[in-house]
Every structure is written in structure tokens, then in C-alpha cells.
Design the sequence.
């Protein structure tokens, strides 16, 4: 199988990252979609894999906003298109207006990777919680 990923991916293993997301554009028309919770399983500066209880369409004309609380920018709002869906699992590709936004996300991801290896709080970019097994999205779910 060919590897399609261009960006190094950070896998959160059993400590998934909690976030909020909502639909923000349909056919480039701004909308105010229902906000919901999501648990990010892995992330790169190109996209993410996450689970949510929201019923989201996989449609190239539908853009969602993923919101991450960070220590430097409150919050980091990432726009993305959903690329695939398997049950409540989704894959998204981030859309950046400026390459420096991708660079900033990559710095945050690298800092988080250091934190996950060392538990050194100085290297954590997120201020939001890691998902617990009792969160609304992960409640009672076995995750591989």
C-alpha cells in the first residue's frame, strides 16, 4: 500500500486529545453549525483522525472548524475538509490560508510529542484536556 501522508503524524495512543468542532462553510457559504465534542486520535500539520458523535457529511463542499486550546494562541482554529468516515471515525485534511499557520501547528505538534514522551509540562501546547474513558465521545468505546 502506498503511503499518502506528506506530514509526520503524532499518534495519541490511549490519551486522545479532546476538542470541539462544527461545520463552518457549505459551498463556501458561511454557516453556524452545531458545535460538538471530538477526540483526536492522531494529528499532523496536514490533517487529523478523530471520533465524534456528530453526524457530519463527507462532502468536499463542507468545511469544518476544529478548535484547539493552546498556550500561545487561544484558541487555535483549524479549518478542514472531511476526507473519509467509518462509523463515528473521521479523517480530515486541514486548509491553511497562510503557510505560517501550518508551521505554527507543526511546532505545537512537536512540543506535544515531547510532552507525551517526558511528561514535561513546559512542552505541552494544549490547555484542553486529554480525553478520559468517561467523556461523552469515548464513553464505553474500545479503541484500536
Sequence:
Amino acid at each position: 500500500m502506498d503511503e499518502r501522508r506528506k506530514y509526520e503524524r503524532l499518534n495519541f495512543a490511549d490519551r486522545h486529545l479532546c476538542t470541539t468542532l462544527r461545520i463552518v462553510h457549505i459551498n463556501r457559504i458561511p454557516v453556524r453549525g452545531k458545535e460538538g465534542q471530538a477526540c483526536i486520535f492522531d494529528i499532523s500539520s496536514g490533517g487529523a483522525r478523530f471520533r465524534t458523535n456528530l453526524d457530519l457529511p463527507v462532502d468536499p463542499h463542507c468545511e469544518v472548524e476544529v478548535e484547539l486550546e493552546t498556550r500561545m494562541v487561544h484558541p487555535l482554529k483549524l479549518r478542514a475538509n472531511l476526507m473519509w468516515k467509518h462509523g463515528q471515525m473521521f479523517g480530515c485534511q486541514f486548509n491553511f490560508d497562510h503557510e505560517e499557520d501550518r508551521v505554527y501547528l507543526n511546532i505545537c505538534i512537536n512540543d506535544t510529542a515531547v510532552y507525551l514522551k517526558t511528561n514535561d509540562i513546559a512542552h505541552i501546547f494544549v490547555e484542553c484536556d486529554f480525553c478520559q474513558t468517561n467523556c461523552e465521545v469515548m464513553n464505553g468505546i474500545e479503541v484500536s
